[in-house]
Write a structure and sequence with these properties.
It contains 13 helices and twelve strands. The protein has 340 residues and is of the alpha/beta class.
């Protein structure tokens, strides 16, 4: 198997984009870093691409913001809109252009990114999601392109610039909040686990159950990526159980609306019968009645930090790989009540 830029980056302890700059004799790379990368190349027998495809980033001019497929989430979830607003504000301040990339599926998104790369019209990428087995991240790594993930890195965590929340802690605190109100039958509704934030929030919920000596019941956990009636069948079955949960941790505001709709179907009242704490604290959380208690993950700041970091790393390739945790907070509203 041929040695890739990703292999060199891992051995040298740098990002793939730094290896790419060394290949292109970028003057911004320090001598120490250059020697470390060159030594890794020699050890692995890495051969420079004849066409010189590696990115030679000296001053960043345009950032591409990558959203997940639009037929699933990108235009439904205000998280992305708020994050893009944060990115745009920083780009405007630092005189950097931005463009948005999405598509009907990940293959179409990858094709768009490949076109941008070949045209040389984009200098860096901000990925507004984090998932397992991502062909987009694999391509960016293999090409040595500069990118930032809003979320947790699934691979090459030591060489990937990440802006994230502590979703494990947030999931635990959301369940702790319901426990503090006297709930002992707490359920979980979330996105499917190929999204890493959802996996961490579910793990945090389970940790809270363990710490409070509550049973972890698989039938209390429902995962779905759609709010269609068909996908809500498992949720309907759970809510019709005699020992149904009295409260739910929900990984996203939109899924919380789906939960409310199913509750209305079977005449369960919120918060009298079911308490809900959701994530994101979007406009949906404030417009619905009763208003949702929510974990505010500060998506606007996530976008700001992502833009600052990609510009900083483009201007100074010798910066260490950055991992920033943006704090969250619980906003208490009317969708939760104390148990008698």
């Amino acid at each position: 198997m041929a040695v890739t830029i990703k292999d060199v980056a891992k051995l040298a302890g740098v990002s793939p984009s730094t290896v790419s700059r060394v290949c292109n004799n970028n003057p911004a790379i320090s001598q120490e870093t250059r020697e470390r990368v060159q030594k890794a190349m020699e050890e692995l027998g890495y051969e420079l691409p004849a066409s010189g495809d590696a990115a030679n980033v000296q001053a960043i001019k345009t950032i591409a913001v990558i959203l997940p497929p639009s037929d699933r989430e990108a235009y439904e979830n205000t998280f992305y809109l708020k994050a893009i607003r944060g990115i745009s504000q920083v780009c405007n301040q630092r005189r950097v252009a931005s463009t948005v990339v999405t598509g009907k599926d990940y293959d179409e998104i990858l094709q768009s990114i490949q076109t941008l790369h070949r045209s040389g019209s984009v200098d860096g990428f901000i990925i507004l999601y984090s998932r397992t087995n991502d062909i987009v991240v694999d391509y960016l790594c293999n090409q040595g392109l500069l990118y930032v993930i809003v979320g947790k890195a699934n691979e090459l965590s030591g060489q990937t610039i990440c802006i994230d929340n502590d979703n494990l802690l947030a999931g635990r605190e959301a369940a702790d909040y319901l426990y503090s109100l006297g709930h002992r039958r707490i359920g979980y509704l979330g996105s499917k686990n190929d999204f890493l934030y959802a996996s961490d929030r579910r793990s945090g919920y389970q940790l809270s159950c363990l710490l409070h000596q509550l049973p972890i019941r698989e039938d209390y956990c429902v995962e779905m990526n759609s709010v269609s009636p068909d996908s809500a069948a498992a949720l309907l079955t759970l809510l019709q159980q005699e020992d149904r949960p009295t409260a739910f941790v929900v990984s996203d505001d939109i899924l919380a609306l789906a939960l409310e709709r199913v509750c209305n179907q079977i005449q369960l009242s919120i918060p009298e019968d079911i308490s809900i704490i959701a994530f994101n604290n979007s406009l949906y959380a404030q417009l619905v009645s009763p208003q949702l208690t929510a974990v505010d993950i500060n998506s606007y700041r996530l976008g700001q930090e992502a833009a600052h970091q990609i510009i900083n790393h483009a201007e100074n390739p010798n910066l260490l790989t950055t991992k920033i945790i943006v704090p969250h907070r619980i906003v208490a509203r009317d969708s939760c009540r104390r148990m008698d």
